[in-house]
Amino acid sequence: MKYVLGAKCVKCGKEYPAVPSLTTCACGGILDIQYDYAAIRRDFSPRELARNPDCSMWRYRPFLPVEETTPPPPLRVGWSPLYRADRLGAELGLKRLYVKDDGLNPTASLKDRASAMAVAKAREAGADTIACSSTGNAASSLAGNAAAAGLSTYIFVPSRAPKGKVAQLRIFGATVISVDGSYEDTFELSRAAIDRWGWYNRNAAINPYLSEGKKTVTLEILEQLGWQVPDFIALSVGDGCTIAGAWKGLKDLHSAGFIDRLPRLIAVQAEGCCPLNRAIQTGKPWQPMEENTLADSIAVGVPRNPDKALAAIRESNGLAVNVSDEEILDAMRLLGRTQGVFGEPAGVTGTAGVKKALELGLLSPDSTVVSIVTGNGLKDVHNGIRAAGEPMLVKPSMDALLSAFAEHHITPKERNSLL
Amino acid sequence: MKYVLGAKCVKCGKEYPAVPSLTTCACGGILDIQYDYAAIRRDFSPRELARNPDCSMWRYRPFLPVEETTPPPPLRVGWSPLYRADRLGAELGLKRLYVKDDGLNPTASLKDRASAMAVAKAREAGADTIACSSTGNAASSLAGNAAAAGLSTYIFVPSRAPKGKVAQLRIFGATVISVDGSYEDTFELSRAAIDRWGWYNRNAAINPYLSEGKKTVTLEILEQLGWQVPDFIALSVGDGCTIAGAWKGLKDLHSAGFIDRLPRLIAVQAEGCCPLNRAIQTGKPWQPMEENTLADSIAVGVPRNPDKALAAIRESNGLAVNVSDEEILDAMRLLGRTQGVFGEPAGVTGTAGVKKALELGLLSPDSTVVSIVTGNGLKDVHNGIRAAGEPMLVKPSMDALLSAFAEHHITPKERNSLL
User: Fold this and answer.
1) Average pLDDT over chain B, rounded to whole?
2) Confidence at residue B161, expressed as pLDDT on a 0 to 100 scale
3) What class is the A82-103+210-386 domain?
4) Are A241 and A311 in contact (CB under 8 A)?
5) Which residues does chain A have within 8 Å of residue B126's beta carbon, measured at their own beta carbons?
6) Considering only CB atoms, which chain B residues are within 8 Å of A391?
7) If we measure between CA atoms, which residue out of B242, B321, B332, B256 comes closest to residue B294?
8) Cβ of A340 and B107 within 8 Å?
9) HSE, side-chain direction, 13 A CA sphere, residue B389
10) Three-class SS string for chain A?
């Protein structure tokens, strides 16, 4: 790992060598991987990157903590599309909006970026079994990425996890433990089991490599924008690991001279579960909250990565915005109708936050904003139908169709021109 | 359209100019788009293609029937991953197997390729409204691709369509008509409505441009294989449009000198609904069948594109293989467990057919085979759970976990090495 200097505790500053099975600091603090940015700057440039045909997160190898000899894991993760979202921007009254659809990853969420990294590091560690706890997406992405690499998985999810994610886990052949309790209970049980059996740990708040995988989402955004720095990047926040990773990627690019300034983050949480945003908003230490939102992926009452997440929001001079479940469902409809992007509830929460921030006057309509959709709506069809409603049911005849249109106040559009 | 000569009826041979709103021949036959392959060969080469950074189906523009000035529709369709599937190949006893995961398209199925083409051609036609009937995937892909382009859609699906596909349709803002009848009933009602209101027609068996979009799947496979021709390409067959498109792509490459021989197709249908394969197997004209399979996307009792599909199978000296619903569910588990790919039932039917063909001795273990997964399993979570079962439910304590492991005969793997 030519450019990796080591790992450093974000709490006490203690330094560690970057061995593959690294977990937390002796003080309990989370570690952060350190790079030699001067060397990266010397050896690597946007121009060189532009010539790399690799359409995956592994195009950013110099910024990633893996051995040069470690092959990329089998599933193709990353290089998700960044859409210019003019139709949605116009509806929201925002000059320039982009949507990064990270639901287009192999297991349909951003978490594939961290799981691919976990698989690479587990292989380096010589491990054949990986375990994690998760609200669902980290779990299904680990199960899929590990299956493709021939590794076994033990996965702990709260029993509230949506059916789509559970189906993925089972299909990928994971040993799935559905925990009859909160995410907090689930996390603690996974921790005890990992301690007992010594599996490779893919809990993002413990394994410091995982946010290095997640950071590829912002590396990609900036490259896809031609290194033009947006004013804001909005995303949903649960455990805190994803926003921490997103910020790390931006700082990497800045430190290596790829960008000349840093965007501000918009951290969006659900009103019913916003311990990190509340800490930002009140200036007090974070306190646990209930997990009271339909956005299951970010229903995290006891965030596992508060230090890195709060530092990311503060260092970026970020906005902390809370949205209601109704606003989340509205964002699902909005993104679908205007941009053809179907996100799961937590996936669209960033977009809901952009709308809210505009309404609250926290965000200028002249801003350039990127909203990251972190997971595919097909993972949670129940809430998709809840957001958008059932279709009309019609008997197979023109009379029945005309009656149904009349009943639903639909006047069919006629052909708009002689074709 | 520099390289398009026109359209020709596959039944009577009548020729038509390639106007954007082209439908079927006056004789009822389906049209096929004709190209000037000598000109393509003169202007375009694998080497030039290798330099194209476009990671989407539009990298193959010289092979596509769109005006040079028509912008690609907004969603990024195509360039799905082709995985070398050694683990699955070993389980099946096949020397070289590849899996093309076309569930990694924007709305999670291969149909995005056709819908993107429909949106491009509807724009050329100046239409603002598109309609189609579909077992589900063509519908949701049209709804998503059209929404992103700001076009309205009227979509007809049989009421049996899985929840995931219906949720997509609703979220994308389509006017959805759920028809209480078979796919045949659904198709006929959509035809009557399109006749009445004059919408742009995205029924793949009527609009000849759509299989030109679908063919990009085989253009990609061959490029991803470095133009090394596999022995077989396996895929599921319903209406017949996809296999017709796949074959068209292969013939295009052959005619333009990109490949020097043609692979054979493996056409896989469900035992309970295999009118096209039955025609191949018996040598008789095809006959309607009941739609008796859980693989909803290929439950097509009256295929709408029999001529092109049967010609594709015959011209390629292809295999026609039927599989049971149990074999389809087994293929879902196999692909998930060995390769981390989660396909919907019809999506994995091609793979089920590869296994079956090996078992029947139709396929030599020495063959090189590509299996196309045509849709994501998240679209049909119900059958995912049916294939793989529910997870174990455990109270949040180590004692409860140990009991559950014992009950399920699970002996947790210990750490395999000192890390």
Assistant:
1) 95
2) 87
3) alpha beta
4) no
5) 416-417, 419
6) 157, 166, 169-170, 176-178
7) B332
8) yes
9) 9
10) CCCEEEEEECCCCCEECCCCCCCCCCCCCCEEEEECHHHHHHHCCHHHHHCCCCCCHHHHHHHCCCCCCCCCCCCCCCCCCEEECHHHHHHHCCCEEEEEECCCCCCCECCHHHHHHHHHHHHHCCCCEEEEECCCHHHHHHHHHHHHHCCEEEEEEECCCCHHHHHHHHHCCCEEEEECCCHHHHHHHHHHHHHHHCCEECCCCCCCCHHHHHCHHHHHHHHHCCCCCCCEEEEECCCCHHHHHHHHHHHHHHHCCCCCCCCEEEEEEECCECHHHHHHHHCCCCCCCCCCCCCHHHCCCCCCCHHHHHHHHHHCCCEEEEECHHHHHHHHHHHHHHHCCCECHHHHHHHHHHHHHHHCCCCCCCCEEEEEECEEHHHHHHHHHHHHCCCEEECCCHHHHHHHHHHCCCCCCCCCCCC
* Per-domain residue ranges of chain B: 82-108+210-386
Question: Cβ separation of B171 and A391 shorter than 8 Å?
Answer: no
| Residue in B256, B257, B233 with CA at minimum distance from that of residue B245 | B233
Please state which CATH number belongs to domain B82-108+210-386. Answer: 3.40.50.1100
Question: B401 and A336: CB-CB below 8 Å?
Answer: no
Whether this model's pTM surpasses 0.80: yes
What is the per-residue pLDDT across B64-121, written as a single tens digit (0 to 9) for each?
999 999 999 999 999 999 999 999 999 999 999 999 999 999 999 999 999 999 999 9
Q: Which residue of B has its CA nearest to A153?
A: B413
How does pLDDT run across A266-302, given as a tens digit for each residue?
999 999 999 999 999 999 999 999 999 999 989 999 9
For residue B97, the one-letter residue type is L
